[in-house]
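pls design
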């Protein structure tokens, strides 16, 4: 698989910097722009409201921002897309996709498991969409005449299941497929190459990478991008230029971070899998955890998020989360440091208990987003927290 190179990462979105006479991406904080003439201003306004990528004049910051546009251009290149559209958060990006497909129907087919709030947005009916939740093999059967979108997340959250994008695309026929590729980043997976129409990221995670930016992005064809920009202009779910700048700044090191964290995660996954206190480890890089053989074909590595379940249910899991010292007990993922969280109590709490169970989210499941630290230091912290959590149980049983 041809991947995005370190050279690409270092230069993407910086094409005109020499002419501009700058080395770092300029941050444009203007909310409004002086117009050359009323006629040309009106023409620019019309173009941007219709979803054009750019115009002679940005007119107003809800319509266009050059700092954000440079980062979008870089993400489009990374995803092999014609265009990318940035949003205020991952959920704003998913919302825009759901609104953008509404003219072709109000039914959505979603492959579970999905990120908890994505699941909630679809279940709640907030946007007027009806959703059929299915397993990956049931997509074709769930299609209806008004199905406007098929949604999959791979690797899936929090079970790290890999879903075969090409197989889902084949089942979807003429219905566009959206892939939430947040866990993979364009470094490890490029869903458009496998036939997806829309690739979405919570850029809050790896793309920002330092735990200090909220953002979302969708990479797609220019015609999809036009619709998404129309939605963004109308709903105002814009990405702030400071966020655009920070995201662009994070891009040259994305590949380095993803590859290093993946190495550390691999080492931890092996140790957890060999540990008798751990019931099961979910990590595509472990033997038997990639039954469809998608590593190498769809993904060029298993990434750096893993989950594991321990005996003793919620009580023991809570003890691990409360007991770690180096690792931060916190939701989110894709940061430079390692985070641990409890999906049933936090990220997937908005789902019903039955839905959680159907997705394999048991009360003893913990999710680890592995950072850039030394594996030995992370293991020492986990080992001690696991010892305390399971010692409680052992002494009660005695
Ligand atoms: C975090 C996340 C989202 C939501 O993104 P926000 O930036 O928090 O709005 C969606 N999908 C996945 C897989 C996520 O991890």
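designed seq:
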């Amino acid at each position: 698989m041809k991947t995005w190179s370190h050279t690409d990462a270092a230069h993407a979105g910086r094409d005109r910097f020499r002419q501009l006479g700058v080395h770092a991406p300029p941050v444009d904080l203007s909310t409004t722009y002086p117009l050359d003439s009323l006629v040309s201003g009106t023409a620019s306004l019309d173009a941007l409201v219709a979803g054009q990528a750019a115009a002679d004049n940005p007119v107003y910051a809800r319509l266009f921002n050059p700092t954000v546009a440079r980062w979008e251009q870089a993400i489009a290149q990374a995803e092999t897309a014609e265009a990318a559209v940035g949003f205020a958060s991952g959920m704003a990006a998913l919302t825009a996709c759901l609104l953008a497909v509404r003219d072709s129907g109000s039914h959505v087919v979603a492959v579970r498991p999905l990120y908890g709030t994505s699941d909630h947005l679809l279940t709640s009916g907030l946007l007027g969409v009806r959703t059929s939740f299915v397993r990956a093999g049931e997509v074709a059967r769930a299609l209806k005449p008004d199905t406007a979108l098929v949604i999959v997340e791979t690797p899936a959250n929090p079970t790290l299941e890999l879903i075969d994008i090409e197989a889902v695309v084949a089942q979807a026929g003429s219905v566009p497929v959206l892939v939430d590729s947040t866990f993979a980043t364009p470094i490890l997976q490029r869903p458009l190459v496998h036939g997806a129409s829309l690739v979405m990221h919570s850029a809050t995670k790896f793309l920002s990478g330092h735990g200090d930016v909220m953002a979302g992005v969708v990479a797609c064809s220019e015609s999809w991008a036009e619709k998404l920009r129309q939605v963004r202009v109308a709903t105002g779910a814009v990405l702030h230029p400071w966020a655009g700048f920070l995201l662009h700044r994070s891009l040259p090191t994305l590949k380095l971070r993803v590859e290093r964290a993946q190495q550390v995660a691999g080492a931890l996954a092996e140790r957890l899998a060999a540990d008798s206190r751990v019931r099961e480890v979910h990590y595509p890089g472990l033997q038997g955890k990639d039954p469809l053989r998608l590593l190498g074909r769809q993904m060029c590595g298993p990434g750096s998020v893993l989950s594991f379940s321990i005996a003793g249910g919620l009580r023991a899991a809570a003890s691990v989360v409360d007991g770690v010292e180096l690792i931060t007990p916190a939701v989110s993922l894709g940061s430079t440091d390692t985070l641990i969280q409890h999906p049933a109590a936090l990220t997937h709490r908005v789902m019903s208990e039955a839905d959680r169970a159907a997705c394999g989210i048991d009360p003893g499941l913990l999710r680890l987003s592995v950072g850039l630290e030394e594996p030995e230091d992370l293991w020492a912290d986990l080992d001690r927290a696991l010892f305390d959590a399971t010692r409680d149980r052992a002494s009660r049983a005695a």
